[in-house]
Amino acid sequence: MWAEVLPALHLRELQWVPDIAHARVTCEGELCAVPGNPVNVRVVLRLGDEVLAEQTVRVDAERFRFDLAIPALRHGQDRFRLLWSPEQPTLIDATVELLPGHGPADSVASYLGLRDVGVADGRFLLNHVPYFPRMALQQGYWPQSQLAAPGPEALRREAELVKQLGFNGVRIHQKAEDPRFLYWCDRLGLLVWGETANAYEFSPTAVERLTREWLEIVRRDRSHPSIVTWVPLNESWGVPDIAAVSDQAHFAGALYHLTKAVDPTRPVISNDGWEIADTDIYGVHDYAPIGASLLARYGDVEAVRRTLATGRPGGKRLVLGEIVAGRPVMLTEFGGLSYAPAAGENWFGYSTVTDSGDLLRKLDDLVSAVLDSPAVAGFCYTQLTDTEQERNGLLAADRTPKADPAKIRAILNKPARSLPPEELDAYRDPAASESDR
Fold it and tell me: How does pLDDT run across 256-272, given as a tens digit for each residue?
């Protein structure tokens, strides 16, 4: 906790929306009150000592929104030095000053990442280029402090461990993560799928509370360049009868559309895992114990179509309604390898291994099957760390690796097969414009 002395009129909220296609950034802000007289808001964007943009606007309302042109984004190949990605997490420093003309001014230091995310032709796109997410399921749990990190250094270390193991992202699971962790994902370069804790059961009260809390999370975190996908629901939790009861289906659909209304710049999955309807990505959970089973279900485009239409890897239908062409398919939970439990041990898991060597062999088998499929656009391995009885992390709960991190990294970073040209048309959405493609 901290206390901060502020002038009577000050900035209360600040958001950034990059648009690299049009070489600009939208600055959105909110003052603490409606100004008695119009005030100036001055914004300066810098990369090191280089000034990329500078603009002053006149504001006479509580909320303001304006665009800043960034000419350097139009400079052909030179623009790539400005773009954010896990491999090059370039951050732009921003200074926002509120200049009321009389009385003390307010100044805020901020940052942003210039990047674009989307989906097309069965692929996830980062900065308009197909990109293969290799993520870990991250529950952000510590034995000594539970869902709160034991200290700020633990949050940085968590992000560093994810990169050390060879992942390029995390799917934050059933938690609104500490913004300080998101900062390190921005700074060090990790993709993030943002999620939240789901309700225990469905009711009008649950609808009201989850909707309110979810919109607050999206509003709080949407300026983080690391966040590339929103996931309001997981595995039909809180909507257990979504396939049969219309009000639960309407709720999931409403969360999808509300999220897109608040933030149209990122893909959204209404219900990750199975029983998916409104979505930009088909996120499938499949804990097959061997790679051959994954290849049988996802090894090519036809196998994926068949699995989405009739498969039930989690015991539930994967897709509710029509399967939409052009949307990527990702295994957003798979693996779950854990050491075999001792007799009477409190444990929950999927496949078991005997030692670190066995863990590496089975991890290689499962990951290789996913990477060998031209029809799978990314993955999320379960999981990063042990979490109470779920002891299927690549790290123990105290963050000790269960196998050589260099060997895990080598397995995770094998090349992924690109979609063969003759199969590309199978993924194209006929309604997509050429600019979308």
Answer: 999 999 999 999 999 99
